[in-house]
Structures
1.
Amino acid sequence: MAGDGMEELIVSTFKRFDSNQDGVIDRVELTKVLKALSPDKFDESSITMLMNAADTNKDGKIQYAEFIAWVMAGSPDGAAPGPQSPVSPQFAPLDNRGKFNVDYRVLLPERFKVDIKKRYAMNKLQIGEGGYGQVFVAQDKEFGNRKVAVKKVTKTGQQDEASLQANETLQREIKVMKELDHPNICKLLATFEQDRTMYFIMELCEGGEVFDRIIENGFITEAVCADIISQVAAALAYVHARGIAHRDIKPENVVFCSQDRNDTHIKVIDWGLAMDFLEKPMTDAVGSFTYAAPEVIESQDIKSYTAACDLWSLGVLTYVMLCGKPPFWGTQRQHLSSARSEKYPISGGPWDEMNPHAIDFVKGLLKAKASDRTPVSTACNHPWFTSAKQKDAVSKDHSMEVLKNLKNFGDATTFTRMCIAAVARQMDHAALKDIHAVFRELDANGDGVLCFTEILSGFKRMFGEASDEYKSVDETFHLLDLDGSGSVDYTEFCAAGLGQKRSMQDDVMWAAFKAFDRDNSGYVHKEDLQSMLASADMHDSWTPEICEQVGNEIIQKFDKDGDGQISFEDWKHLMSACWEKKQSVEGPISNPYDLLVQVSKLK
């Protein structure tokens, strides 16, 4: 047993249920104790739910062995009964035992020495070029309605300094994009490496570049500009807080998600020049001259600069969007001289009719001295953005639906949450549009993550302070934070906000299935599951033996044809079971061990 105290607790509580001392618990005995515990909390349906959960052989009674297996499934340390106990049940990964902090970023598939053309049909028409590669549209051959953007980069085999630096830049871009998880940053879905060619599989943003919209219209309206810039600022606040600078903010690297002109959701793309400035100082003179900060232009690969370079670029971007022209021009010397002295037109033309807050925003960023620029956290909450944040308001019914899903997700098991997070990681902006709107509404400070106060405020607004949802929000928040970072990231929120119908769509389940199919064989093997669980466990809470047990159990439970591996059809059954388990715990009490403790306290 997990300890003498635990064994005594289980025995005494079983005897409390088993009033006639015949060695089993029938429904009448179960009902009597539960009603004594809480007459209002336990109705007939909830009692049936608990009875079915414990009565595994379905004989209408709970045997002592069944009782032990049931209550131990929710024990705080996840320890199953030992060899000397009356029963030693198999480890059940779909129950509430043994939760750990999940690094959902490892759910991103990496393919080596795999022909990408077997998976994707590549369109020969190039849609963009950034960093060191070209970008194409590709179609998933398994599901014709699933399109992605593919960035193709060829690594050089040369050993000269420039070649080595290019390869280092490529690896840095992969590392950065794996880490980034924000609603306004283009999502990396997978990587393929074939010989010397790297392929970045990314979500497809079909709305085109902001640059093209500027060229088409001459400028972008102030209201739309405020909306777009607020999103770019949020993305920069997010990456700067993680020690990353983009270093190439410009209209070409801001793209609309949708072709719908009324949809102004944008993503920041092309992280080829991004750098972790906590690892080493930034000295490279990189980026586009028109948008580069004076200190970047003058660095000459010697002088270091800070992430404030992105804030200058954001100011230039805002200026160009508002009036259709750059603030500085002429020769390189003239451009730099004007930038240093902060001389640029900010009156006449459209400026006299401009919202003073818009002008204040631009002036606060176009400061020659980096330390004088508006801090990114302040920029995210600038008064100019007030109208933009109101624009995304969603209906109360929809917000409530998403928040209820958050509560349900907190009750799900570790393995279930991993599977659903894998689905969310592969869903693009179109599939997450409604959830994105709720996320943005909750994100009061616009930093792209949700703190406890923001979640608490949302639950209070939707359900009220007297609601059970509001009272248990502390526990809900803790369970939503899969990786234990202290905040709820975008993928974590999207995974929790998904309903069963949306996450069970074949195309997104296929993408998640391929995340677990680590050797790209078309099947998920025990070793795949074991490896995924081990790598996702951030603090090694599960031993290799437990990971192996989980892998074995999943194969045994869901391998319908007995070939020792999980096919896609098997995977769909597995996902369905995850949701069924998730729904089954939605009752008066979700953890049998908690019930055990409560019953033991009855007088």
2.
Amino acid sequence: MTDRLDSKPHSIFLLRVLDVLSSSVLALVILINIWLFASVNPIVWVDNIADDAYYYLGIARSLATHGLFQFLPPFETNGFQPLWQGILAVDGFIFGTSARSMVIECYGMSAIFVAFFVTLSKRWNGSALAGVLVAILFPGIMLSGMETVMIPAFALLFFATTSWKSRGLLGSLIFLGRLDAISLVVARDVYLFIRRRELDLRHYAIILPVAVAYVVFNFWRFGIFLPVSGLAKSLYMTPLENLITAFQYLIWMFPALVLLAVAFVLKRRGGARPIAFKHGAELTICIMAAIVCALYYGSMSGWPLWEWYSWAPMLITYYALLEVIDIAGTDIGRGRYRRVSGTAIAVTAIIFAAGGFNYTLKTLKMVMQAYFHAPMTASFGRKNLELVDWVRSKRLPQGTMFAMGDRAGSFGYFLGGDYRFLHTEGLVADAAYYNALKKDEGLSYVEQQPITYWVAEREQFLQAADVIGVAEPVQGLSMHKGVYLICFDHNAIAVDQSYPSMYSPTHDQNEQRYVFDMKGRVDCPAPLQAQFATLRAGYGNVRAFSLPLQQEAVGVLHPYIKRYLGF
């Protein structure tokens, strides 16, 4: 939708040098990560893949080996975005399904999409640098093994194509890549109608049949129309009660707004009239898509936000970077080196403030931990691997069933298919568990399962005398029914994996992480039931009680944004 970057020959040379240098650094960091995945103990790098990515990997392993949509037996699930799940399953079928192999495949496929995005950025918008910078600034989207890595490349292709058939194909890929990303397609159509009175909807002749086929397949195979992961997040929520998350989502645009402000000031100083952004159409479309996503999460979902949701703010940041780079290139071409220096200082300050080198530093830290025995900070991912080692050391029989909610991805994935598993948050559970939660009969459902161990990690539990109460699911902010309480005698703790919380500023408060033996399950005493009922009635109270440090750390400003502000 835009022309390529305009610059004089000597400015083009400098920008090409920056493109090559930045791309080389990113490639080197990616290769180091792949080397680490292939050569060192997973306990070093387990947290470099998003915990939710391990759900994808577990299901991909099951599809590649058994043709079943299972994270672990015995529950079939549709808790995934379909295109990424299919790609990983094919990778597993071709290249192998060992735990280490599939992590490398997942990260390698992410790297391919990152390279594709950077290449398209260079081809269509004249700058690989912008693509590299946003990839490093948003590693949760691009380098954590999540499906969102596909969306930026698809978006650039979608904006560039002029064929309605190509738009239909790319729109379908965008939808199958991440369902909420269809907002990008709709936003483009609305923008063109408002701005240019253009209304060409022929691409929906391809997109709509794909969407209908996906919904029909879900109902035929799983008995529900939409992914159980999304349904679980919207369970029993009060409309608009979670609206604060819409504001939090839009805060992700903070770096883009700063960049646009820099571009505006530089244009103003340069005397440009009118002051128009070169990529104004794409910026407007992405902002419209971001607003739609924000309203969706604020009105239809009852959960907090996670970093990979911010694909639309990332695209806005990308186009804002292009604006600043375009101004710098123009200034160099016209010999305005004073303005260029100011631009360079401003952009550099933003990148540093944004923690753009955090991912690189994290990679170097893993190298130090692997080869120089630097100390490793305790994390739930590392505790998950320690728990897997405990299971194997105990030689628990095949088919032993575990139940765990939040933070269970790496545990279930490395545990492997010889064991059974129920995901108590419902993200990779089956439709029966979702329907039980929907009927407020979650506790009755789990009582019917042959669960041997219940794993729970909280900053604090409900307690009365020697009884510990675990609320499940815990992540729902606006979920006043469906949440249930299961209680254990204190002596039921088979393993205590408590460790210092990353959310504790002084590191003197623990994540209380227990493996409960189900033989020690007891009836919840009346005081605990009354306290639980009070918590469940309020907005976010169950989560705030169970994870107070994490809840306080999030607050109104998402932790990712606090990183930008230097908090």
